[in-house]
Write a structure and sequence with these properties.
By secondary structure, the chain is mainly alpha-helical. The longest helix is centred in the middle third of the chain and has 46 residues. Bound molecules: zinc ion.
Length: 191
Amino acid sequence: MAIQFACKNCDAMIEVDEDMAGRAVTCPYCERVTTAPDEPVETTRPVLEAPPLAPQTVASIQAVRESAVRRYGVFGAICAVFAAACLLTAVFILLPIMLKAPSEMREDPEQMQRFLIEKLSGSPMQGVPFAAAVGMVFFSLAGLTLGVISLTQSGGKDWAGWIATIVAGGLVLMFCGSLALAASGFGPAGP
Ligand SMILES: [Zn+2]
């Protein structure tokens, strides 16, 4: 039968053979000399062993993880809304000018672009469409990334993640589409 007791130096629970009762032993934890008791000591303390996590700790870790995932989705959705707002700002500024353009100009993106630049230059709105375009690209990419992270982490259960992915993803597609159009020769030729 083994004797369990606490080391008098470091308080760790040690176990020794019965024939070591009352003798000096070297503690395996602190490596200092301690004395084993004459007979087994009744103890409720477990011999050094990592205790399992309490259920409430597991639950709170889960909750923290879930709220982090939810935050990804919500931030993604906010980015998607900003991206959409940037697009709307550009449309609200550019559309009225485009409608004033002569109808034959509307057929030709290059002429239309020159017309827009001409009308906007010198106006206080000059830099706004460019800033809005940059904002849209930035926020839609950020929104799409956060949305996808949120959906992957939550297994598709986070509604904010869906909003972020769909809205921002749509804007990214739109932006890639117009880039492709530009690359295929219709695009901005510069003033
Ligand atoms: Zn010790």
